[in-house]
Structure formats: C-alpha cells, structure tokens
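Lab meeting notes turned into a lecture example. A postdoc, R.K., suggested we walk through two folding results consecutively so the class can see how the record format repeats. The first protein's sequence and structure tokens come next.
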Amino acid sequence: MADDPPIIRRGKGLRLSTESPEAASDAARPEDAPAVQPVEEAPATEAAPQIRRGTGFRLSTQASPEEQAALEPEEVDEVMRERDALARSGAVRWRIQTSRGPLSYLHAGSGPPLLLIHGWGASARLWAGTLADLGQQRSGYALDLPGFGQSPARPAPPTLKTLAEDVIAFADTVGLTTFELAGHSLGAAVAACVAGRYPERVSRLALVALGVRTFAPELTTLDWSRPPVDLSLGLARPFFEWWAPVNRLLMQSPPLALTLSALLLHHEPADPELWREYLADHAAVDARAYVTALTAVAAPQVREALQHIIVPTLFVAGREDRVVSLSEVMSAHQLIAHSSLTVLDQCGHLPMIERPEQLALVLRGFFR
C-alpha cells in the first residue's frame, strides 16, 4: 500500500520501520522511551547524536512472509521466538547510535530508569521476563553488549573497561543522568565497573551471579595472553560468520544443549523457551567477547571496582551455581560495606531461566 512506511531489510528477519513513535501504538514506545535516530545517519566515530522527540526508529521482529521466505529455517524460528517473547514482556527493540558505536536494546515499562546488562553467552532477551515483572515500577532498558545479541562487535577487542564505557555512552545517548543498574555474570562485572568508576551515575546496584576468584591461574594466563588471542580471533572472524548458522544448529542439538545445561542449570528450566533463546544467543557471540566473559570472574578490575562502590548493593546467588560458586559470591559481597546477599535455593547460574519468579520477587523488593 502506498501509505505503508518504507522497509529496510536487516539480517535475521528484522525490519527497520520509519514510522514515528507517535504513529505507533502506545505499547510500541512508552512515553518516557527516547526517540532514536537511524544508525546510518551517524558514523560510530562522531559525537553522540542529539535525541529528537518524534523522529524515532523502531526495530520490529515482525518480518513479512516475503522476508521470511529469504531466510534460513532456523533464522525464521529465531525471529518468531523473539517476537513472541517481546509480546509477552511488552518490550520493544530499539537500535541507536552512541558515541562509541551502535547498540541494540529492549525497552519496557515506565518510572525511574533501570539498566539491565546480560551475562555470559546471552543477550537482552535474558531479561525479558524481568522487564515484564518490573514494568509497573521501572522504565527498563536491557542492553545487548557489543558482540552479543544484535549489537555488532567493536573493531577493538572488548574489555571490562570498554564495556563499562559502552554502558555510560548508552545512558548519555538516551539522556539518563542517573539510573539504577542490574547485571548478571559478565554483565554484573560490567555493572560493578560502571558503579565503581562512575559513582555519581548509579543510585542502586544489583549483581546476579558475580563472584571474585583469587586463584585462577588458567584464567589469569588467558587474560595475559589476550593480544595474540584477540588477533587470531579477529583474523578468523570471516570463518566464524560463515560457520554461524551451523553453530546455531549444533548449540541447540541435544548433546551440546545437555552439556551446557549440566554446567549452567541445576534442574529443568522453568522457562524452556527462554533456554532455547539463550542457546541461540550463545552460538552467535563474538569470539573475543566470549573470552572477556570467561576471564571476568578472575579479573583484578572487578575486585578493584567492588572496593569503590558506595551505593546500596544487592548480591543474588544460586546455591548450586557451578560457574560462580557461592563462596566466590560471598567474597565479592564482603568487599562492599553494607551490601546484602540473597541466595536462591535449587538454582544454578541462570536464575532468569530456572527461578524467574523468585528472582523477580527479590528484584522487586530491592528496586521498590
């Protein structure tokens, strides 16, 4: 139809709609969500764009039948899964250009701003249930870190420091002077670095599955050898991109899925669909970002950042977590004076998938 908005094809069935947020439904963009400008208009090297009300761009996962026909079957499945997940959470996916490069994120709810940062191998989709649970009391922003989900990797290898700077650049771009912050696993390490380095920006902090490991020679060695490792992984990126569809299928195959579930989960997931989404996201992570996630628990920057955090802080741990042990979480907890610790029983490394109701109850109480 002639009145339909123009459509620009994006990978994995996403389409970029140029209809203004005012023309979309209220559920598509809450009143306090920022208007964002098209990525193509501002290169990654220039200053953060001015946010213009009423000229927003919205990423939609509702690909047309013609668009879906051009996709691989597993890509169509991924598009449909995300559409259904966002419909359940009431979230809308946006993509903006920050001063450091493009970032994709989910937004839902209204109220004081709360930033949510995903963990190892995940994406913003891991927080979809939390966005729905807190939507009545918080304006939630769940980020895809660079190299994860739908945020492209940066040219330079990621570190906890640069990822923290990406979070601040995001907050600057959407106009958030102060905000509450929650992170899981790698995202918790990034959140700790943000709160430690930018104490004036963070008002409350929740750290899920974050610990410090004082003796980890294998991770320390890997961290020290990052330059040649990152160079090799960067040179191999074309191969990884070519291999991505196969890797997505392999990651969701029973042998690998069971292997990961044995490591990350204590029992059957309470949200099987979110677990499948996690496996798909895990398969698509930028290799250099994956190494950063692996070494975060032993990174000295985390211990240093924790010692400088002065805002009210909550630690959440799974008692049966095999990735970050309860003793490691307690070691991190002891570095922040007046912080609190909540332990979820019968829970491994992914409480959003295993114990979503209990986690939501804990976070609602903390961000009250």
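The second example is placed directly after the first for contrast:
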Amino acid sequence: MDYDIAVIGGGPAGVSAAITAASKGRKVVLFEAHGFSPRLRSVAQITDYMGIPDISGTALMDIFVNHLKQMEVDIIEAKIISLREVGEGFMLGTPHGEYSADSVVLATGISRSTLFPGEKEFLGKGVSYCAVVDADKYKGKSVAAIATVPDALEEVEYLADQCEHVFFFPLYTGFVPPKKKNITVVLDKPTEITGTDKVTGLRAGDDFYSVKAAFVFRASDPLNSFLPGLEIRGRSIYVDDQAQTNIEGVFAGGDCTGQPWQVNRAAGQGQKAALSAIRYLARRDEGIDY
C-alpha cells in the first residue's frame, strides 16, 4: 500500500508525528515493534508534562496510543529492516513485507547500549539485527544471539528452528530459559565479535564461541543500520532547524536527534517533523524546490 508519510517508531515523537500528519489529511502508516516505548513505560512518575502534573509513564503512553488509534493511521507492529529510495519516494521493508511512502519520519529513539567490539565492522558480514531475514543463511551452522529485550525471545527461537545451534546471551533480567534443546544459555556478557572478512566467533568472559553469525536484538538498532548514508553526529541523527535529515524527504524527531531526552521535547519534535514532511510533499507536488 502507498502512503504519504511513513513514521518509524511508536514513542512520543512517532505518535505525535502520526497524529499530526493524519489530522492534516495525509495517509499515514506507523511502524512500532516493541510495544510503544518500553523506556517511557518504565518511568514510575512524570511530573513535568504540561497539563498532566502527576502520571506514570505507562499511563501517559496509553493516553498517546489511545489518541493515535482514534486517527486514521495504519499501525504495523513490525521492525523496519530496510529503507531505500525508489523513484521520488521510499520503500520500507519489514520481515513480512514491503510498504511504500512518499516521505519518512524517523522517530526511532536511541539505543542506550554501546555497540559490541566488532559489531559495526561485521554488520552485513555475519552481524544481523533480524532473524527472519537472515537466519536461513546459516542453516546447519552455529550462531550467537545477543538480546537486551525480552521480546527478542521469539526471534531467538526462530533462529533455533533454522540453525544447528544457538548460543543465547540474555542481557536483561527475568528471562525465561528457552525450551528448545539446541539453545545454550550463556550468562556471561559478550566482549567481542571476531572474524576476518566475516564473523567467525564471539568472546564472552574467558570463553570463545565458534559461530558463523551474531544476531543482536535491541529495542532500538543503530540509527543508520537500515538507512545507509544517513548522517549521524555522535549518537544522534543530524537534522536542520526544520527536522530534515541529509536525505531529501526523510525527517526526524525525538530522542534520535539528541538530548535532552524528554517527553515534552520528543512530542514537539515529532510534530515539527510531520509538519515539515507535509510541507515538503506539498511543495514537491507543486514543483517547487524544497
């Protein structure tokens, strides 16, 4: 299906962007794979959100999502694994299908996790962020699965269905041991992904694990993992004062554009990104340079 605006991320910035764009009559799709801002939901008390002086993060996020669901926005509960320019628009890929949009708003939040040594170097050479897409490349082989979020267990078990063996590194509390016999749980934290031209192993504690791939599952993937060429400054997406990135037609707002990481700022920036995307589409349709 074709959309005017695709929003990637279902936190305060993404929901704000989607509501704003839909209220202006644009056809909008929002992609959210992790239950609408688990980080905000973990906050016990918020006292500085205007008009709501005392509320939990979960309750505030539920208010946002309930508003979103009253708008004409298509919600796709899937991870974006690819984003590429096609003609004057974009094609967005999930593990289960592709969607096209004329513009994109990035509201991905930011991963607080530091990249593992070797992760960046071997991305696409054995390091992957999606089991559904890449698991079949490693049939009959041993792989590593590193997870910082509980909902990654489904992808870990999918890996076990496709691969000979999975070394599972759960980096979160309260994990439930998988039942599949070809999954080995390792409680040491990985220290390095190793290889030459591709992944050949992983180190954790004093041990070395011979694997052909390392799958890393986080709430937020590295910002440019699905959009090569996106300009990153430090840990943030670079945007101008109109929320436009260095890629024409791609806008960004919220935590992914830098500090302060606050709900008020994220919601406002999401709105700005959506309005800029709407203006971009209107001017493009009229043949005016943006």
